[in-house]
Each structure stands twice: as structure tokens, then as C-alpha cells.
Design brief:
heterodimer; A: mainly alpha; 1% strand; globular; B: mainly alpha; 71% helix; elongated
Amino acid sequence: MIVAFVAAISFALIHLAPGDPFSAAMDNPSVSDAVRENLRVQYGFDRPLPEQFARYISQLARGELGWSFSHNRPVRDVLAHAVPNTLLLMSIALIASFALGILVAVVQVTRRGSTTDGVLSGLSLLFLSMPDFWLAILALLTFTYWLPVFPVGGAVDPVMHEYMGLGGRILDRLKHLVLPALTLTLLAAATVARHQRAALLDVLPSDYIRTARLKGLTERAILRRHALRNATLPIISLIGLSFPALLTGAVFIERVFAWPGMGYALVNAIESRDYPLVVGSVIIGSVMVMLGSFLADMLYAWADPRLRAG
Amino acid sequence: MFARIMERRPSRLALGILTTIVFIGLMAPLIAPYDPAAQPDIVAMKELPPSFAHPFGTDPYSRDVFSRVVYGARLSLLIGVLATVVSLTFGVAYGAIAGYAGGFVDAVMMRILDAFLAIPRLLLLVAILAGWPRLSIGALILFLGLTGWFGLSRIVRGQVLALKHAEFVTAARALGASRRRILWRHLLPNLVSPIVVAATLGVAHVIVLEAGLSFLGIGVPQPGASWGNIIRDGSDQVAALWWMSLFPGLMMVMTVMTLNVLGESLRDTYDRSA
């Protein structure tokens, strides 16, 4: 239902915007009006709006997202190549950021009130306040120009990749992956660390923690065995909430590192005024985020024994 | 509430920095040494590294980056505040109506909200802005505001729902107060704290969003000096023109971070008193 709503919003947006892909504002001004009219008829832009909407929805239902003018290919094909790269980046960042964020939070809570705690809190707030593209640019500057250890951009070396052996190719891909993945991980980890620290501090005053402490368990064992387990549920709901931020971050990071994913396709589509590709990316992006939150909800239901029983 | 957050050192520091940045924005014409849009010599003076004459260097159009960053403070803060005012107006109205009406109206209004919340805000904005070639700043502010009220209206609805049957509301109703009077005089004053928190964090969020959109080329129109625009102008040669991404970015991070610090300490004090 929500997908249909998103489609309706995007259709409304397309038609609220002035002109169409064939008007002079978008297109080459030297093309004559007669040719423009022909194209409008050919692509169905002359039909009444309700009919266009019905066609649009039925196309969407069949997985057709329209025609990308800048790639001269169906939007679906363009995105089919791009989405796996974005998913790869997002999944790595998702796993790594939760691992890093939880680790930071545990360290902070073990030494709460100390300088370490304060410094880590400050750092996570710093990363939280950084625009994604700016951190990406800083990483690019630092690790490709000032300390050239990583390649500048793309997913593989544009010239040498074809001539590498299997091992070389894997290494090449990994090298290209490090900076984009690291940037996205740091940005996402900041949120996780802050939430997790708060969740752990919420749990600590509970009775069962006091019991564990009275049993003589060390602070570390209490955190690991008792507090962290009970703070798992907030983590899972946080996973669901983190998808929009991960996707948004991926858009900017792909732009800066020329990572050939959906965000990169979207940014290029904006630059070349390829509106069908823009809307297609927005729809697919929203669907990805929705699926992500849905999966997180399922995981939550499975992980919470109270919900599992009922 | 305000006095209490000032007892903390980070909040005092944040407020000090933020006041300075606001001051820079207000006094931009007096502080900036050059016209931020002037292109004095596009051949001889373009892409100069930082020097005494141009502390943040110049851009590919020979404009002084320091002056542009100073004017950027004015533009980014203005956009942040105005867009947040739009968001607050919509968010509070929508949430208060849904919460107070309850029942079917509430259910429908919340489902609509769910659908909007499902689309990441940046993508929604990209879909809107990419369709309009050459959008004015006013329209940009409006769209930034119109896409930012969903979360707040949920909070407001929850609060209204919780307070609707409080004794003081029942008492007001018994005294014959109209619906509008109950909403304005009795419910809204109880919502001031969460609204202030949401507004502070909201301004920070809008500044980051505007910078991102400008970076993608669909935010503030050229030659407007916004921090995102400046970074975009240097993004084709990030390494050669490092001063164009470093300085505006630092200003932006400082602004956003101080707003976040203030917003979070406001929330902490509010949570504790609630």
C-alpha cells in the first residue's frame, strides 16, 4: 500500500514540475516543435492525466520504471547494474557500524564519567554533525592525495583490472571498497554508539544487574552477559531506523568516490536532467528502505521472547 | 529550562560558538572583505591558495572564498531557521488536530504520515527539486520545511493524546472553553519543551540537508553563496582546491555540532523534569 502511495507521490511530482522531458527547458532548443510533438505522442505525454497515471502504475507493477534518456536504456537496466554495488556498500557499513558502535558504547559505559567516555562522546557527536559528503571529501583528500594509500575512485582500476589475475582482481576491488565503506561506517557508527550508550545506561539500574553485582561478578561480565543482552532489542529497532541514513549517506559517498552504485546513477541523472532515472532511483531507494525496516521488524518479533510466544 | 542547561560547560561553549557564527552571519557585509559574487579577474585571480589577501583562497571564478563562507553563514542559518518555522507550523497543527480529533480522523492522518515517513527525506527532496529547473531560495525553504514536519507531528500528537483527558483539560471543557481555546491556551503551552528541542535539532538537520542538496547542484541557485555551493564549486578538483572544501565544511560542522549539543542538553533537562 505504501509503495502505491510512493508511486502516486512521485507521479504527482513528475506532473507538477513545469514542462516535460521534451520541452525546450530540458531539451536541445534547436529541435523543432513538430519533432517535440511527435515525441510527446510517441511517449504518451499527450493523453489525459488519469490515463497517464493508470499506465504509469501498471508499468510500475510490471517492474517497468520508464526510459532513461541519458543512458538510452530502460531505467530498470541502469538500476539493475547499480543497486548491487549500493547494497554491498550498505551491508558492509551496516554490519561494521553496529560492531564498532556497540564496542564504543561498551567501552564508554565501562568507564562512564571518565575522560575516555567524554572524548568518545565528543567524537561520536562530531561524526553525527558531519555532512556525509564532507567526511567523504576529507577521507579522499587524506588517503588518496596527502597519503596516497588508496585509489581515487570507482569500483575497480579502469585500466589494469582486466589484466589482473584472480587474486589481483579481488585485491583491486577491496582497495577500492575501503574508503567508501569506511566513511559510511564511521557516520553510521556515531548514531549507534550514542543510542547504545543510552540504552546500556538505561538497563544498568535494573534489579537483575544489582543482583549480578552482588553475586560478585566483574563489571565486564555484567555488561557482556546481562546488560548487553537486554539492550539487544533497542539495537534491532535501531537497525530498522538506520536504513534511511545509510542510503542517504551512500548517495553522497558514491558521488565523491565515483562508486558505481545507485547514488552515483542518481547524481548523474540529476546533472543530466534525466528525470525518469531520478524518479526510478527515488522509488527503488524508498522500497529498499521500506524492505529494510520490514525485515528489522520481523527480526524484532523473532528476537523478543515476549512477542515470539504470542 | 534555559538557565539549567547553562550550568553545563559544553552547552555554554556551544552557545558561545553559535552566537559568534550568528553574529558573523548578521554582520556579513561588514566582515567580508570582498563582494561574495564578484569575479574580479577570472584568469589571473582564479584558484589562488590561501594568502593574506584571501585567507581561504579563491575559487575557479576568482571569487574570494572567505567572503563567500561569511555570507554562507548568513544564508545557511537563514534557510535553516525559516524552513524550521515552516516545519513547526505544519507539524504542530497536524499533530494537534490528529491527537485532539482522535478516532477515524486520527487513524487516517497517521497512515498518511507513515507513507511520507517511509520515503527518506533526501530522496523526496531530490525528486521534487530535480524536476524544477532554477528554483528560487524561497521555494527551496518551503520544500525543506514541508518535508521536515512528519516526525514532530508524531510527537505532538502523542503529547496531545496523553494530555487530552488530563484534569485541567476536563476542567476547561467543563467551564465551557471552545476547542480552539483548549488547544491554544491549555494544550500548546505544555508542548513548548519538545517543540524547542525539535526546532534546535531541526535547524541543524536543515543546514546539513541544504548543504547536501547544494552540493548536488539542486539547492541554492548560483551564484548564491551557501556552504554546500562553495564545496560543490571545488569538487571537480578536490585535491588542487582543498581550501574550498575544508573551510566551509569546518564552519558547517561547528554550526551543526553546536546546535546538536544545545538540542541534546535541552532534551536531557526536559526529560529529567518530565
